[in-house]
Amino acid sequence: MEVQIFGIRKSPATRKALRFFAERRIKTHFVDLQDRAASPGELRRFAQKFGVEALVDRESRRYADLGLAAARMSHDRWLEKLVEEPLMLRVPLVRSQQQLTIGDAESTWREWTGS
Question: Would you state the pLDDT for residue 75?
Answer without folding.
Answer: 81
